[in-house]
Amino acid sequence: MTVDLSAAPLPEDLVPEDLIPASAAASLVQVDPKTIKNWIKAGELRGWLVNGRHYRVRRSEVLGLVQPVATVSGGH
Questions:
Q1: What pLDDT does 74 receive?
Q2: What is the pLDDT of the chain when averaged over all its residues?
Q3: Distance between CA atoms of 52 and 41, rounded to whole angstroms?
Q4: Which of 15, 47, 50, 71 has the smallest count of CB within 10 Å of its CB?
Q5: Do 45 and 19 meet the contact criterion of CB atoms below 8 Å apart?
Q6: Can you tell me the distance from the alpha carbon of 26 to that of 35, in angstroms, rounded to the nearest whole number?
Q7: Residue 2 β-bridge partners
Q8: Closest CA relative to residue 1, chosen from 38, 36, 41
Q9: pTM
Q10: CA dist., res. 73 & res. 67, Å (int)
């Protein structure tokens, strides 16, 4: 889901200070910025457009995508 911040009112629970640029989000989880945009377009991550072209996402939602990898304990 993408919302254009320049054209729509902000949701009540969102303040602009909660948002980070897509490039910063990508660095945070070590993916390409295009991946962040693809996740937004696929509905896997909520995103907002600023001035019709700059994607922003909630830092907490990006970190929420990170899942621990289960480790297998072996005799090695």
A1: 65
A2: 81
A3: 15
A4: 71
A5: no
A6: 8
A7: 47
A8: 41
A9: 0.69
A10: 19
12 vs 10, which has greater pLDDT? 12
Question: Residue 11 in contact with residue 19, Cβ under 8 Å?
Answer: no
Q: What is the pLDDT of residues 14-24, one digit of tens each?
A: 666 689 999 99
Tokens of 47: 């995103």
| Calpha distance 50→67 (Å, rounded) | 29
Secondary structure, 3-state, the chain:
CEEECCCCCCCCCCCHHHEEEHHHHHHHHCCCHHHHHHHHHCCCCCEEEECCCEEEEEHHHHHHCCCCCCCCCCCC
Contact 25, 57 (CB under 8 A): yes
Q: What is the mean pLDDT of residues 6-19?
A: 62
Determine the length of the chain.
Answer: 76
Q: How are beta strands 19-21 and 54-58 bridged, if at all?
A: antiparallel
